[in-house]
Amino acid sequence: MLDIAILLVVLGLIIATTQIWSNRKKADTGISPERSGQDLGIKPLHEFNWEAVVPHQFRPFKPIYYITMALKSATPSDLIVIDRNYLSRIRERQATMAEHEKHTLGCIPPGVDAVKEVYSYLVGDYLPTRYPSLFERDDKSFRNRVTGDCLPLLPPDDPIAALRSLGKTVEDDMFFLRETPDGHQCTAFVCCCPSGFDPAAKIGKLLKDIHGPVPSYEKIGASMERFFSRLEVGKSVSRINWSVTTNPGLFNVSGNHVNEGDQVEVDMDIDIEKTSVRMELQTLTRMPRTRAILFSFKTYLYPIQDIKAEGLGPDLADAIEGLKTGNAPGMWVYKGGIRWGKSVCKYLRS
Questions:
Q1: Considering all CA atoms of the chain, what is the largest pairwise distance in Å, rounded to the nearest integer?
Q2: For residues 81 and 56, is the Cβ–Cβ distance under 8 A?
Q3: pLDDT tens-digit series, residues 249-270
Q4: Which of 253, 247, 317, 308 lies closest to 278, judged by CA?
């Protein structure tokens, strides 16, 4: 009898230790099975039919360009936007990551915990709560009903594996930032839609160095740093960034921007059918545990033929020429207007 009692005690200790370790592991990664996504301010979209959702039609065209932060308040629910392009974009992202891994995925040691926190938040809380008809989870795994993919609920130890899983689950690109005495530093990224820059060249850099090529960035750089430092959990913000591209590809590490010293063909002829307005819906989110800043963005492409058909050709032409004016006239060259501006404006006004 004594042997049986000792055995029961040992088994009890093993079970208790296992439970404690499991709970601690979940706490370390931000996963809490008792916590409801709605407690985090996430509003569910029940019976959401992603195939019927038309992509947002942003038209932020103004005749004079001013470099400003132009931030708008957003809710935790607004973090990830899904529409009818979801599946095709996810497939394209998987192919891009496979072909260009070094340019689409990156992490340095200070970013590992932030990557794990965001992974846990998205697969454990946000996606199953916001889009319950698309994503589901149990105590161990997360399932994407659209793609059929299953992911572990706990983040992989390898941050690149975690980033790759995020990259094939949502179409938003993500950069992870941490505050340092010298400013905010990029510590990790998953980016399949770079517009004229190499994401791998940004890892480890400070905001001021990342934006070094951007004309007149010094006018908003200090304000950005202060705002990032003050951003609160649950108080996300968003903004729209736009440009014109003559390259229909989403993955573009060079060519969309003109930097100092580049050889430029001025007033070049363009293929209207390959020319689009490229917009990014950018969001800033403070993570509660690591205090990291998640900078995420969803990319939209609008053929300029569609813009013209809507009757907005003159408005877009004015906005393009407005890049020369305002408080950042260098944007005309930087955004490539010196190459395609004349041809695009002529078409839009014809």
A1: 96
A2: yes
A3: 999 998 788 877 777 888 888 9
A4: 247
Q: What is the pTM of this model?
A: 0.89
Residue-wise burial string across 259-270, b where 16 or more C-beta atoms lie within 10 A, e elsewhere? eeeeeeeeeeeb
Q: Which of 26, 23, 228, 191 is nearest to 121 (CA)?
A: 26
Structure tokens at 189: 């990224």
Strand pairing partners for 279? 242, 300
Four-point Cα dihedral 10, 13, 18, 20, nearest 10: -170
Query: Which of the 8 DSSP states describes residue 195?
Result: B
Residue with tokens 């006239």: 329
> Given CA atoms 309, 312, 314, 317 in this order, what sign does their dihedral have?
negative
- Is residue 293 a contact partner of residue 177, using CB atoms and an 8 Å limit? yes
Nearest to 207 by CA among 183, 175, 236, 189: 183
Q: How many residues does the chain have?
A: 350
pLDDT in tens, 57-76: 999 999 999 999 999 999 99
